[in-house]
Prior knowledge:
The protein is an alpha+beta fold and 418 residues long. It contains 16 helices and seven strands. A hairpin with a 6-residue loop joins β2 and β3 (39-46). α6 (142-154) packs antiparallel against α7.
Amino acid sequence: MAKLTATQVQSYARTATANKKYSDGNGLYFCVRKSGMPYWMLRYTSLNGRREATLGQYPSMTLAEARLESSKMQLQLQQGEDPLAIRAIETIPEIQNVSQLFQDWYAKDLSRRLKHPNIPKRVFTKEIAPVIGQLPIQAVRPTHVREVLERIRESNRPTIANDTLMYMKQLFRHAIKLDLTLNNPAAAFTVDDAGGVESSKDRMLSKEEIHYAFSVFHTHINSFGRDNYLACCLFLVLGVRKSELCEAMWREMDLTTGVWDLPKERSKTGVPISIPLPRQAIAWFNELQIRACGSPYVFPARRASHRPHMGPDTLNRAISKLFGREPGRKKQPPNKMGKLEHFTVHDLRRTFRSLAASLGIAGNVAERCLNHKLKGVEGIYDRHDYFEERRIAHQTVADVVEPLVNFEHPSQHNTGGH
């Protein structure tokens, strides 16, 4: 087949009335279109199958330039390489430091694989990036990993220390996959070097402990915050997960009928559920709606933040501060809780389950109140699954909790900060 000439190419480009390809030999084609610019294309076969590589547009790329580019790609093929694969590698953004490595890991893996990728992102941003974020990947040593972990251990956050170590190991494994380093600087560390082996979490508050804790909340309401106070009340009577309540929106609530429709996007199970609200919860939500001042969120952020709602650490930080623990500060606040054993927001959810059991509520109903899928049971749960039984369960628990947490005080309507 005769090769193309520059005059022919010019003529084909000028008179194109349909999509057509003209061969120059050796897989090189001049492609014209009814609309759009003509272009050069190389057709070849590699281990990846039949491929078509666009070389450039005409007239920006001349016939001679297209032949030269085609020859370069043919040489790559003779060397056992795929030109399109090489081009893809060359277009990958250069990853130089640890922060750029995390951005790539987040975009290419975490955001696709995890339902809540913001959890490792938050750990990296708060715990890892301040220490090693700007370091070149190959410059990170085990001593840097130890520094990250020691900072967290000094603030008495063993769970976060263990999570941080896990994410650092995964992050540098990602770097090894990308051929950015040969070694994982976090590989030799174990949980003993981080937060230690965590004991089984079975903390539940007794009625006496609930009353005492909320009396301390009440005494220090100006620093603890009324919003935080009401959130803790709601965890005790609803048993929902922290993110489900802290990120709740008013459009999910119908306070007239007393139903909270939690959408599947915010449910850990990925299934929507309608939560029946006891009368006490409706009253607390009504107060929160006034305090929200028109915000679409039940718990709007009270301080400057990139989040429009209460942060994931806000409540636990506020509770820990009353126990004399404030991460990141050398001088710790006084312990206002006395000898009361430390507890977290999740322990309030666990306490709801304990109260439900003590009040004779059936286990399967209590588990559905927690939005757990029942073990050993097949089938798809309806959002109204066990709805009437759950309504009775929440009301029964709320009737017990109400006198333990309700304290009248003159600053009841002061806005508390998050």
